[in-house]
Write a structure and sequence with these properties.
The protein has about 90 residues and is mainly alpha-helical. It contains 4 helices and 2 strands, in the order H-E-E-H-H-H.
């Protein structure tokens, strides 16, 4: 669901998001389809792939972030690793 305040994606942003969604979760490595997380709304070119648990789960990014802490992962490290995988 798109937020009413979020700008519509450009073709290039859609393509980037599509490629990111095909990667495994950058935190835990789960390969069953990733959700695309933007560090800030509309920042598609630095988005990262996350499984549902690492993204929206109680211990995920939008929860306590315990899953991230246990794997010593930060948002900047995740962005860097995503860029490396896409290169």
């Amino acid at each position: 669901m798109r937020s009413k305040n979020k700008p519509v994606q450009t073709a290039a942003e859609k393509e980037r998001a599509r490629r990111v969604s095909m990667l495994p979760c950058i935190v835990c490595g789960t390969c069953n389809g990733s959700e695309v997380h933007e560090p800030e709304q509309g920042m598609w070119f630095i988005s990262i792939p996350l499984c549902a648990a690492c993204h929206r789960g109680p211990d995920g990014w939008h929860g306590t972030r315990l899953r991230w802490s246990l794997r010593k992962m930060s948002e900047l490290k995740a962005i860097n690793e995503t860029g490396r995988l896409l290169a």
